[in-house]
Amino acid sequence: MEYFVQQLVNGLTLGSIYGLIAIGYTMVYGIIGMINFAHGDIFMIGSFIALIVFLFLVSIFASINVVLFLLIMMIVAMLLTSLWNWTIEKVAYRPLRGSFRLAPLITAIGMSIALSNFVQVTQGPRNKPIPPMISTVYNVFGISISAKQIVIVVVTAVLLTIFWYLVNKTSLGRAQRACEQDRKMAALLGIDVDRTISITFIMGASLAAVAGTLYLMYYGVVVFSDGFVPGVKAFTAAVLGGIGSIPGAVLGGLLIGFIEGMWSAYFSIDYKDVAAFSILAIVLIFLPSGILGRPEVEKV
Amino acid sequence: MTAISQDRPANTSLVQRGIREALYAGAISFGMFFLLIGIKTDQNIRNELILVPRWGLLAVVIALVMAGRFLMVVWLHPYLEARKLQKAKAPVVAHAEKSAFVRHWTKIAIGALILYPVVIVLLVGFQGSLKWVDNFGIQILIYVMLAWGLNIVVGLAGLLDLGYVAFYAVGAYCYALLGTEFGWSFWILLPAAGAMAAFWGVILGFPVLRLRGDYLAIVTLAFGEIIRLVLINWREVTNGTAGVSGIPKVTFFGLFDFDVSSPYYIAKVFDIAQSGAYYKIFLYYLALALALLTAFVTIRLRRLPVGRAWEALREDEIACRSLGINTTNTKLTAFAIGAMFGGFAGAFFAARQGFVSPESFIFLESAIILAIVVLGGMGSLTGIAIAALVMIGGTEILRELHFLKAVFGEGFTPELYRMLLFGSAMVIVMIWKPRGFVGSREPTAFLHERKAVSSSFTKEGHG
Prior knowledge:
The complex is a heterodimer.
Chain A: H1 2-32, H2 39-60, H3 66-93, H4 102-123, E1 128-129, E2 137-140, E3 143-146, H5 147-169, H6 171-181, H7 183-188, H8 193-219, E4 221-222, H9 228-241, H10 246-266, H11 272-286
Antiparallel strand pairs in A: 1-4, 2-3
Chain B: H1 2-7, H2 14-36, E1 39-43, E2 49-53, H3 55-89, H4 100-103, H5 105-156, H6 165-182, H7 186-205, H8 213-233, H9 235-238, E3 244-245, H10 266-270, H11 277-301, H12 305-315, H13 317-322, H14 327-353, E4 355-356, H15 363-376, H16 381-398, H17 403-408, H18 418-432
Antiparallel strand pairs in B: 1-2, 3-4
């Protein structure tokens, strides 16, 4: 039983990171109907920015002040990653808005290849390890919970609350939801659709940047190709939860985290990704639009 | 940015606007690049990461971005606007007589492809031809073959498949494992690899029948990853990441072969000088034959009921079903036949490399093949071949640009920038031609006379 709860905690940690990335996928999909393949690489860029900020801070301050460091890393990563995603949206996706469906998908894949290779060229192909930031481990009823895991879960919960408030209670969120339902009608009612879409990309990138910072802190290492696997997992999470649905993205992220944790604990660690992908396929056979997704009704 | 600049009063001159936009772009690129280009993370002797500033490089990159933006505003945009106006003014020529080159261009292209190795051998000799026939000829033909195979699924049936490389892997491992274990010939295993891949195509097809759009995309992607992960982890059979080596070479229908130690080695049979180029040239023609077979089958299938059903499915699934077309069978055949050609290409790839490992079947390959299909114009065989030539040939040629070393210094390796440029080229080509190189379609069913349909009227399907 303790072993099970232990795995539950590990799954929750991993799932929080996936959930944060998945929100970026699901929001962009909801608003412009495009799979933003470059989102995983945006997460990786966020992680690299956090890495550079961390090294910079270490070289200035003598001792590591965890809370201050994490806060600065997150804020800088959020700002710069948002700038990246905002620019990418303007340069690569906006000219293709209203074009046929596969065109933005291909530019997104091209962007993803370009971004990861850009980081490879500028920062080198090696792994980038950092010294552990937090190493405290608490022991609660026989379950060991590290302080890192607590930080990840708490940060995710706080961010999701802010995010939930933004989407559901502010005029900005109302504009976003309106654009999601009917972009043309929203434009007729005076909503600046382009601006709303830009803000959606910025919000997605900020959450991905936080996920990148947490990922760097949790694993202590980052490499230029790190965008792909978490990106695909998060995308899987978004689809599993029902793409376009924000609670679905979080739920899907947690589910994928649990599946991975449980599978590697009880079966084989080699096949944990196979398990996650297979469960996605099985769920979609029975629920073709994900767990919380609205079934798409095509009007003739 | 363009939207803002259009609202400006007309009296600000173009150059002024260009300078303003350039400053704007410079500020943005400074924000994006000052950490990622301006500072490099390096490892010191104690394996700790240290920061190395590179402000010079940062300044150069930002200056380039600003210059590029300035030229775009001052020169490129007015030029494109003027050309658009000119095009709109020009009278529409009703029935321009096509030149002989356009009418016979398929034959000319095939003729050129057949003569290509001969010309290369005459120009640079047998030894020098290796690189050109292998890296350019065979490499591009493999991608043409794969893209034409995927075109059946994506271009004709309109089903978005992000895991096509799985079938390529199935074909390659089918030949690699059966060829090395049992010593069976390529000519027996080629159809076997195709059949095996088609079988897996149906296996994938079943669960995704009800899925549409992006749900389909993610499940096909997941399928591709599952196949790759199984190849990595099922070490008893596939030898894991180490891969399978010593895959037998293709023989010339058993008459003679290309293995130096064999008594039927081509040089011994014909009593000529030994050279590795014979095998490469033979493989080139084999790849060409397989690619032409794919094209031929695709062209003929489009005229069969099943091909018409695919295209109907792409245009409108509901209408298709109301007309009594069995969409289940239609989708499954599309997956199976597309996968079969992927399997052929895989078997050929294994024979050419003599070695396969899961490294060759990553998602990036699927993405490249899909990009070629879309850049080529989805459904147009000619367009896809052009796209493969431009994208694959273009990145291969980067390896050959040794003169760049003279410009950027001895340490400059163009290969490093290969994928960066490939990704950027995908973005630029897509923005420049969102419908691909050849966007128009030639319908197979028509009234009185065949007319090319403009790309803006064709659909890309929901599946």
